[in-house]
Amino acid sequence: MPEHTNGSTKAPTMADVAARAGVSRALVSTVFRNVPGASPTTRERVLKAAADLGYRVDNRARTLRSNRTGLVGVVFRVQDAFHSDFVEALYPVADKSRFNLVLSATTRARSEVDAAEALFDDRCEALILVAPQMPDTQLIDLAQRSPTIVVGRKIRSTAVDVVRTPDEEVVRLAVDHLVSQGHRRIAHLDGRSIRGSVDRRRSYLKAMRGLGLEEHATVIAGGNTEIEGMRAAETILAAPVRPTAILAFNDTLAVGLMFGLRQSGVAVPEEISVIGYDDIHMSALPFINLTTVGQDATATARGVLDQVAGRLDDKSPAGSERLVPPYLKVRTTTARPTS
C-alpha cells in the first residue's frame, strides 16, 4: 500500500490528498465529483496527489447518501464468448460515463431472473441484458421495475429498449460474400431454439430467394455450442449433396463445425467454406482464422449506455430501438468452390 502522509500504511483519505496537493478538502471533492470549480492545473495536481498516495474514490459510499446510485446491472452468460467480449467493450465506455457496472452472470444453475433480482438487490438503476433467453413477458415485467435495455435480440414491446445488429444485414453480408466467390449451394446452420434463430433463418431464406438461389437453400439443425457444430458436421457429410458453403448461427457453432469437418478429412475452405457470426476473440486465432460477420461491440456498448442515460434522465421514451451495422471480416475459411 502507498505510504500515508504520516509514514504509516493506513489507507489515505481525501484530507491526505488535499494536504499533499496544497488545496482545501472541498476543492479535492470538486475535482473527484468532476464538477466546475477547479482550474485544469489544480485538477491535474489533485489527481497526481491522489495517484501518488494510492487514493481511490469510494463511489458506493457517495451514492448511498443520495437517491441515485449510478449503478447499471449487466446480466450475461458465462459460457457465451460474445457476452464476454461485449462486457469487455462495455467497461471503457462506462469509465467515461457517470455509471458504474455491476455484473450478474447466469450459469446452468443460475437463471436470468435470479441474476436480475440480485442486481435489484444491489440498487441498480437500470438493467442491461445481453441476448436474454427469457420470454418477452418476463422482460416486460423487469422493464416495469427499471429501465431495461436488451442487447442483440428483437423485442416487440413499448416497455423494453433494444440495441442490436439487424439480422437481415448480417445474413446479406455473409451470403453476398459467398456468392461473390462463386458459391450457390449455401446452407445455413441454425441456432435451433436459441432466441433470434428464427429471425436469422428467415433472413437467410429471404436472401437466398432474392438472389434466385431458393432451390439451393438448406437449413441444418445446429445450436449454440462447439459440440453441436461437430454433430452438425456428421449430418452434412451424410447428405447425398453437400453444400459448398455454410453460414453458421454464430462463431462458436462455426468453430465446432470446422473441427468436425476437418476431423472427417474434409478440407476447409477447399471443399466446404465456413462463415460465422459475432467475430469473437477465438475466431482470430491462427489455427481457426474464421471468416465472420461481426457485431461492433464498442458501438453497441456506446449505444446501450447512451440509452441508459436517456432513460434515467427522462430524455428518451421506453421501447426505443438502436441498430448497429455489422461488418464483414474475411479470413481464411472461405474461398472459391473447387467444383
Give an account of the 3D structure.
Residues 12-66 form the HTH lacI-type domain. One of its GO terms (molecular function) is DNA-binding transcription factor activity. InterPro entries: HTH_LacI, LacI/GalR-like_sensor, Lambda_DNA-bd_dom_sf, Peripla_BP_I. This is HTH-type transcriptional regulator AscG. With 339 residues, the protein is an alpha/beta fold. It has 3 domains: 14-57, Orthogonal Bundle (434 Repressor (Amino-terminal Domain)); 71-165 and 297-323, Rossmann fold, CATH 3.40.50; 167-294, 3-Layer(aba) Sandwich (Rossmann fold). The chain has 12 helices and 12 strands. It has helices spanning 14-21, 25-32, 40-53, 59-64, 81-95, 112-121, 136-143, 167-180, 197-210, 226-238, 251-263, 297-312, and strands spanning 71-77, 100-106, 126-130, 148-151, 161-164, 186-189, 218-220, 245-248, 273-278, 291-294, 321-323, 327-329. It has a 6-stranded parallel beta sheet, with helices on both faces. Strands 7-6-8-9-10-12 form a 6-stranded mixed beta sheet, sandwiched between helices. Helix 11 links the parallel strand 8 (245-248) and strand 9 (273-278). Helix 1 (14-21) packs across helix 3, helix 5 (81-95) crosses helix 12 (297-312) and helix 8 crosses helix 9 (197-210). The longest helix has 16 residues, at 297-312. The chain is elongated and about 80 Å long. The model has no long low-confidence stretch (mean pLDDT 92).
